[in-house]
User: Fold these one by one.
Assistant:
Number 1:
Amino acid sequence: EPEVTQTPSHQVTQMGQEVILRCVPISNHLYFYWYRQILGQKVEFLVSFYNNEISEKSEIFDDQFSVERPDGSNFTLKIRSTKLEDSAMYFCAGQWISGNTIYFGEGSWLTVV
Amino acid sequence: DQQVKQNSPSLSVQEGRISILNCDYTNSMFDYFLWYKKYPAEGPTFLISISSIKDKNEDGRFTVFLNKSAKHLSLHIVPSQPGDSAVYFCAASMKTSYDKVIFGPGTSLSVIP
């Protein structure tokens, strides 16, 4: 079964550093998402991406966050200057052009120290 | 503003018995509902979904019931197995915003052998 793959699986970074989380969605998915889950809290929507641009973003997704799909395959989430409260599991997800089922990757666990 | 609520943070069930996980929503514009299962340190895995034009959808041991007038849905697992122990997330989306799926806070299910 096709999978959404994410790298790294775990990253520890110092506060203020830039982090890039990478995702390879299932081929012929056209809608892409980033969600996050802070330990002990619910899964939160960050951003959706379609046709090479952001289609929707949450209030969490402020100026320190950015997304891009530079080569038509990888989908990245960049956090410019990490804060302690950015520590969370970040999930990439993808969706077919029709239908609402979103398929998630295994997650990237980010620890900011 | 919690649009998708799962009021039971945890549930314990004996192996072989029925597990019933409940979910309530507040936004009457939601027209597609999904259940995801999540093991620790893994991404959410899609389980089953239901469109608002139906009131029941069944897939093997999993059945989802939707009561639109009560804005309530439930996931039934029969019979429950120890491998079903996980966190279950209810999620919802609407036609006008296919870009975003809203998750509930999750219910942790423990199936006791």
Note: Residues 5-112 of chain A form a domain with the Immunoglobulin-like fold (CATH 2.60.40.10).
Number 2:
Amino acid sequence: EPEVTQTPSHQVTQMGQEVILRCVPISNHLYFYWYRQILGQKVEFLVSFYNNEISEKSEIFDDQFSVERPDGSNFTLKIRSTKLEDSAMYFCASLGHWANYGYTFGSGTRLTVV
Amino acid sequence: AQTVTQSQPEMSVQEAETVTLSCTYDTSESDYYLFWYKQPPSRQMILVIRQEAYKQQNATENRFSVNFQKAAKSFSLKISDSQLGDAAMYFCAYRRSRNNDMRFGAGTRLTVKP
């Protein structure tokens, strides 16, 4: 069964550093998403991406965040200057043409900011 | 704004028994999708079951079924013959059909007692 692949599985970074979280969505999917989950809390929407541009973003997705699909396969989330409160599990998800299906989620990247 | 409410932070069930997890949502849309996701300790997000709002028939997937009450905006998950492997966080999620951004409830932690 096709999978969404996220790397790395765990990243530790110092406050103020830039991090790039990587995702390889399912190849024929059209819609791409980033969500985050602070430990013990709900899964929060960050941003959606379609046709090579952001289609919607939440209030969490401020100027410190950016997304890119540089080569038609990878989908990246960049945090320019990490803060302690950015520590969370970050999930990438993709969705194919049939919108009534649920997303396929990656297994997540655990980001720890120290 | 669409909101999803899971009023049960924790539930427990005896192995082989049946348990129902509650979910309500708020929307002014008539066409949308509802989902239940399972998050085991690995923190992978796994789709359990989905329901299209235009369908009156309740979705069923093996031991998992839903009770979809559109007028009441209620979408509960019933797990029959509970197994130890069902222990996880369960998230209810809503998605409009006009865009594909999914919104999650706060989750219910299900414990299965042997």
Note: The CA atoms of residues 4 and 105 of chain B lie 5 Å apart.
